[in-house]
Amino acid sequence: MRVVALLWTVGFLLKEAQAWSFKNGIFHNSIWLEQAAGVYHRESRKGRYQLTYKEAKAVCKYEGGALATYEQLEAARQIGFHVCSAGWFDKGRVGYPIVKPGANCGFGKVGIIEYGYRLNKSEKWDVYCYNPNSKECGGVLTDQQKIIQSPGFPAEYQDEQICSWHIRVRLGQRIHLHFLEFDVEDDTSCLADYLEVYDSYDDVSGFAGRFCGDYLPDDIISTGNVMTLKFLSDASITAGGFQLQYTAVNASHKDFLH
Ligand SMILES: *[C@@H]1O[C@H](CO)[C@@H](O)[C@H](O)[C@H]1NC(C)=O
Ligand SMILES: *[C@@H]1O[C@H](CO)[C@@H](O)[C@H](O)[C@H]1NC(C)=O
Description:
The chain has about 260 residues and is mainly beta. It has 2 domains: about 100 residues, Mannose-Binding Protein A, Chain A (Roll); about 120 residues, Jelly Rolls. Helices cover about 10% and strands about 35% of the residues. The longest helix has 10 residues. The radius of gyration is 18 Å and the shape is globular. The N terminus is likely disordered. The protein binds 2-acetamido-2-deoxy-beta-D-glucopyranose (2 copies).
C-alpha cells in the first residue's frame, strides 16, 4: 500500500462552515451534490473538458444511462444539484446547473446556465448523464454511521468505475473512517485503481490520502463534519475491492483532538 501524505488544518472547515446553511441539525452544502434525481456529472479520466459529444454519449451509455435532458437537469437542480463545470446534455446542448449564485460561476445567475445547442460537436466539455437505476456507487451520505464499499462488493469491482461519496454529518461532529477490507490493484503511485480520501466536501481541496494495494489503511478522522471519498478503476485488472465504515463522532471528544 502506498499512502500519500496526510496533512490538514482545522481552520479551513470552520471557515467554510460559516458560508453554508445549517438546518435540522445537518450541515447543508449543495455544492458538489454529485447525484440528484438520477442526474450526475462526469468528466473524462483525462481531466476537465475533454469529451466530444460522441464521447459524452458513450460515457453515459457505458454506465447504463443516457445524456440528461434539460428537464432532468433542471429537476435535479431544484433539489440542490450544483456543478460549476459545463457539460454536454441531450440534443447537443451544453450548460451547467447553478443553485447558489456566485461571481465565479454562472455569472451570478441561478438556473441552468446554457451555452446553447452546439453546432460543432467536436468541442470538448464534461457531461451530464441521467440514470435513475445507477448502481450503488457514490452518493451523499448523512447517516451517523454507514458502510461504504466498492461497487459489487464482495464480488470484484469492475473496470472503469468512478464513484464519489460525500459524507456530511452534523455540524460540530467529525467523521471517523475505519477500513474493514482493502484489496485494490497495486501499482507504484496508485495511478491505475485507487481510493482517495479528502478532508472536505469536494475532491479539490483537503487531499488526505490515496490508497491501493492490499494493506488495510489506518483509520482517518476528519477535521470537520464533511468528507469525500473517490474510487476510480482503470480499463484493466480489477481486485477484491474494499469495505469501510464511517462513524460520526462528537468533535469535542478529547481522543480525537491531537
Ligand atoms: C470544432 O471544435 C474543435 C475542438 O474545439 C476545433 O478543433 C475545431 O476547429 C472546431 N471546428 C470548427 C469548424 O470550428
Ligand atoms: C454527541 O453530542 C450530542 C449533542 O451534543 C449528544 O446528544 C450525544 O450524546 C453525544 N454523543 C456521544 C457519543 O458523546
